[in-house]
Each structure stands twice: as structure tokens, then as C-alpha cells.
Amino acid sequence: MKSFLKAVISKQAADVDFLEIRIEESETTQIGFRGPSIESLSQSSERGGCVRALYRGGWGFATFNSINEDSVTYFIRSAIKQAKLVGRDTSRLAPVPVVDVVIPLNVINDPRNTPLERKIQILRNYNDQILNAHEVIRMSSVRYLEKYTHKWFANSDGSYVEQETIDLGGGLVPIALKNGQTQMASVGYGSSNDFHVILGKEEKLEQACRHAVALVDAPAIEGGVYTVVVDPVLAGVFVHESFGHTSEAEKVFDNEALARVMKMGRQFGQPVLNIYDSGLDIGCRGYVPYDDEGVKTEKTYLIREGRLAGRLHSRETAGRMSEKVTGNGRALNFKYPPIPRMRNTCIEGGDSAFEDMIKDINLGVYAVDAMGGQGGEMFTFTAGRGYMIRNGKIEEMVKNVTLSGNLFKTLENIDMIGNDFQTHDSGGGCGKGVQFPLPVSHSAPHIRIRDAVIAGSR
If we measure between CA atoms, which residue out of 108, 54, 103, 105 comes closest to residue 79? Predict the structure, then answer.
């Protein structure tokens, strides 16, 4: 493949400013239970590739499924033709080292070594556990995703990257129904190297079932402004959805108002606050040795000691903004061009113990787990469940705990960061435009937010 890619590129590279080819082969298994029965079961394979051509700042992009010299050459010429039709500016790609690397698959437990029947049985056992847990648990959702991908990349700079990846993700969701109410809890899992993350979830699933049952009868929280302690799962979702997406560089480049806000060195939080995005974390779903532009991954600080320190770049956004490339040019698959995307987005651990975070709160909220929401400058996130904090102690469970507010004001109000940093992987993935679901991770410790707005009953 290496000699083939280099040969077809060399014949056309002189016609444009830049040229690259990606080829992928993938095998995907998906299993889903809904209630007592299997709702979905599929195994599929796909093979194809894409070409990107850059000319005078304009991109051409073409995809193909037939991988031979005539076909690939035809689509290279098609991408070049597109680029020349739209190119009217100057091409700006941040320089990166030319590489020639092969990244073989390095797994602890390869899911392909486990028969499909065994995977189905594991999920069936979890599904049965959910449906037999309590009379008010009337429904379940149990999901499993496994994808093996082999990628080849080459460009006109002379780089060649070949890598194999595994992506695993899923979730176990008990759903309780009582008196017209529906409440749920979840156990998520995910990995890039270990099938065994799917095993041994019985105890966590038992707890999730208890939480779903308790939520049905729990009182709704009274809306208001509270000091809120956020658990690592919800804190990770918050940093991903609100600050991570805001840090993807093309959003800043294309939005003058946001560019004025996202100015390097600006104070966004207290010195205790550090946020970064990393592709280096082996085993996470967000582990990305080389991105889809052939750029080696790294750890990129977005906020350091409370100040804006970086953003997430593709080669083009880094070139156009005269900033350092970060290895965040990612594509869902060969059908799409790479754009700035997150990997494992993290709030760095601090030095506060959980007990110290709650001990001086007379009336507050402990928000746990995540059940969805909307990020951006103005955000809304719903916790899986909450607990009232009264006089420095965790008290009764409450439901309908929804945090909302302004991202930048909320960052300012983070005054304590826990010493219990955790990484959370689950099923699904990150969505951006039509490129969904891209495998990512998020990590955080407990964090404390002063003057947080909680929607609820009054």
C-alpha cells in the first residue's frame, strides 16, 4: 500500500499546493437489546478511501471504494479539479515533521477473539439483571459497539502513516416507570485496547437499578442558585461540550466575536483551573497516535492556571492563525475530510478532598452523572441524579437537576478542584455537523462551582 500511495501521489502532486490520500478498511459489530429482546444485531465491513487536494486556499475532496491505480487516479484528478475551481487565496498549512511510521494494533484483550455468541450472552445477562431488578423497572437499553479499523495515509510532503485501531463502547440502562414518570440510570464502558471493559459490571449495574427506582419517588429539586459540587462524569461532559467545542479552532477563526473572547492569555478562571486535550492516553477511546492528517498526537493545554493557553487545530487552522499544530485533525471515516476535533478532554486534577469541598456548604447540590444537555457559551446539562448538601453533609436524593448558565462565568466560579481525577468512557461519541459519532473520552475530578443556576420546581 505504501508504494502504491506514494506512486499515485507523485504523478499528480505538481498540479496543486498539497495532496493527501487516506484509505481505510473496517469491521464493525453492533448488538442492542431493548426490553426482553434483541433489537439490533449487525456485523459489517467497509473499504474505501478519499483524496484531498489544496490549491490557492481551496480544497477539493473525493471519496472512492475501488482501490486500484485507474480509479484512485481518476478521483485525484476530480479533487484537483474541484480545488482549482474554488481556489482564490493563498494556501496555508502549518508545517509538520515528515513521518514514516507504522502503528500496529496493541491490545490487552482483542474483542475479535471472543465469539459473537459469547458477546450476545454477556449482554443478555446484563439485560436480564436489569429486567429482574425491581417491579418498577419496565424497560432496558443495552448496547455494544466494536470497530476495528486499518488506516493508510500518505501526502505530497512525503509522510506515510499506517495504523490499526480498535474502538469499543456501550451502555447498560435500566428504565423505571411509575405513575406516568420515567426515570433512568446508566453504566457506560469503553476502551481502545481491552475487551474486558465489558465484563464485571454487575455491581455497578445493581447500583444503577437502585438509583433508577429511587429517582421515581425522589422529590424534584427546587430551582435556584446554589454552590454545586459536580462529580467527575458530569464535569467531564461539561468540559467537553462547553469548553472543548469552543476551543476547536475553526469556530474561533470564523467568528470575530468569539475570537475577541478567546484571546490567548485571557483569564478565564482561578489559578487552580487547568484544562487540556490529549491523544496520548492509551486505552481511552480518545487515544489517537496520529491524527487523520498524519500529525503526531500530543497533550494540548487549553487553560493553564486559569488563563487561555491553546486551542485545537487542524493543519489549516493552525496555518491560518499562525499557531502551533496540535494533532486534532480528525475525520469520522474516509467519507469525510478531517476537521478540528477533540480526543480526551480533561479538567486536570487538583488537591482538594471531596470532604473539604462540601464541609462549608450550608445548602448546596451534589450533581452526579450525566443525562444529556446542550453545550456552547450558554449551556444546559442535566445530571443523572442529585443530592442536597445540608450543613456540610450529603443528604436526600433529588431529581430533575439541570445546570445552566454562561460558560465563561461558570469557569470563573470554579473555586475547588478535587484530587480524584477519573477518565470516563462510554458508548456513543462526539457529534459535529454530520460527523457523528466520533470516539472521544473525557476526564475530570470533582469540581465545585459557586453561584450555579439549577433549574427545577418552585
Answer: 54
Q: Which amino acid is at 30?
A: Q
Coil, strand, or helix at residue 378? Answer: strand
In this predicted structure, what is the pLDDT of residue 458? Answer: 47
98 CB-side CA count, 13 A: 5
The cell for 133 is: 431488578
Picking from 135, 96, 115, 125, the residue whose alpha carbon sits closest to that of residue 36 is: 125
Domains and CATH numbers, the chain: 2-217 (3.30.2290.10), 224-455 (no CATH)
34: Cα within 13 Å, side-chain hemisphere: 3
DSSP letter assigned to residue 336? S
Please state, in angstroms and rounded to a whole number, the distance separating the CA atoms of residues 326 and 278.
Answer: 9
- The closest of 358, 365, 383 to 222, measured between CA atoms, is 365
Take residue 80 and report the three cell numbers written for it. Answer: 484537483
340, burial (CB in 10 Å: exposed 0-12, middle 13-18, buried 19+): buried
Q: Please identify every stretch of the chain with a pLDDT value under 70, giving residue numbers as ranges.
A: 456-458
Q: How far is CA 245 from the centre of its chain?
A: 10
Which H/E stretch holds residue 123? helix 116-131
- 381, three cell numbers: 446539562
pLDDT at 125: 98
pLDDT on residue 377? 87
- Of 257, 252, 456, 232, residue with least CA distance to 354: 232
Alpha-carbon radius of gyration of the chain: 24
Residue 298: what residue type? E
* DSSP secondary structure of 277-302: EES--TTSTT--SB-TTSPBP-EEEE
Phi/psi of residue 301, each to 5°? -75, 130
Query: Rounded to an integer, what distance in angstroms lies between the CA atom of residue 337 and that of residue 435?
Result: 10
> Cell numbers of 137, please?
423497572
